[in-house]
Amino acid sequence: MVLGKLKSKFEKSTQTPVIQAPLSLSVPASRREIFRYRFQAGTNIGGWFLLEKWLAPSLHEFNNSSDDSEFAAVSSSVKQVGLDRTITKWNQHYDTFINDQDWNWLVANHVNAIRVPLGFFVLGHDFVKGTPFEKVVGVYEQAWKKYKGMIEVARTHNIGVLVDLHAVPGGANPDSHSGVSGGGKFFTLPSHVSLALDCVEFIAREVKDYDNVIGIQIVNEASYGALAEKYYMQASKRIREIDPTQCIVLSDGWDRRRYAEFVKDKPGMLVDTHVYKCFSDADKSKTPNQLIVDASQEWLDTNMIVGEFSCTLDTSTWNRVSNSDRARLRAEYGYAQFHCFANKSAGFFFWTYKFEQGSGGEWDFREMVDSRCFPKFYRAQRKVTSNGEQEAVKATQSHSAYWDTQAKGAKMEHWRYNDGFLMGWQDAAQFWAEDESRIGQRTTWKNARARQHALTKGGSNYLWEFEHGFDAGVETLLRSVL
Question: Does this entry carry the keyword Hydrolase (predicted)?
Fold first, then answer.
């Protein structure tokens, strides 16, 4: 059942209700909660609802300029062949870029989530006023409907969707994946921010009833140093007023520790960080072996997702080794990233799933998985056969014996450890039953359970015993099936 009364009690006591995730997680966990809080093992599907020339060159057929943005593609097409033919071409792309074979491949390779970028202009007429896309908005009349259709298809495959507002008005950075080239003006123009807030509110309302929408990303790759926090709080308020349970994903603006601190006390907010080792001069100066070590030691936590990464290293890096070693080192790099992200974050999304034409090499998720340069999640094919009670008794005895020795005379509350263990076991078992999923946002989930426990069993200086028990229950369950 859902502990609705506990939720009401908590919401009255908190000072910032608009940024709080729902305290009253369902007991047992709901399918919606499992979708949102499980570890997300996924890929981006770039070039589908937000064009990039290197991913979908056919839609740049009439674009002879150096500008490789979507606006350059769509405006040149309208100019050359007219609105109707451009509409037909764009809709055909939406309908065919991903097909049944792609969905089946994703399922067969244990992908449980996709991050699907979109531009604000995909949302329709009401969201392009005062922007260049106002002139070509007719091209996108069916786009949002088709995007929602994608969410529905994903749900039939048990795949979650991170709705990624990748391109915001004015561009969060100057790169062409913002929909226009030479952007980066978003955070400095109030009219652009206001329009984006309308966009996220619209998206929140439109996807509220999809249990497989695992979050709304409110911006992609904010420029370093951008004053983004005000927009993040405003967007979160808009979303939470419509759907208090929705996960909200924000860009780290290439400043991971800053935004890790920003979300720390804001349950239900996740930081999107991008990990690339092929762009900076420092990374270009390293050998593949050095970057493999760096990849295994990446600093992350379970309030983060790695929203983009690849197996790509710069040519200057590869030139430091022989060609005969490249395939082996590429695989070592891919595996190092996989194991680091799987153990330290709430999820990962490779950039990108596929290219419209031919091979994408080290940027191509399908190619990297098929060539065994990037692993897929192991499937143990084992079911949970215990309710955890015997395991809880044994673990609580061990916990009690240790602390009774370490804290002689203290009136500790070891029963809280037992309660935590059983809750952790039960939650982990439920996630496992859903396609062998694991709890991804472990800290947020555990804190919510601990608050529920405190409201039902009373507060205490020994709530940490519940939390320790919860962690032990999760880990013991996983050891029993892996």
Answer: yes
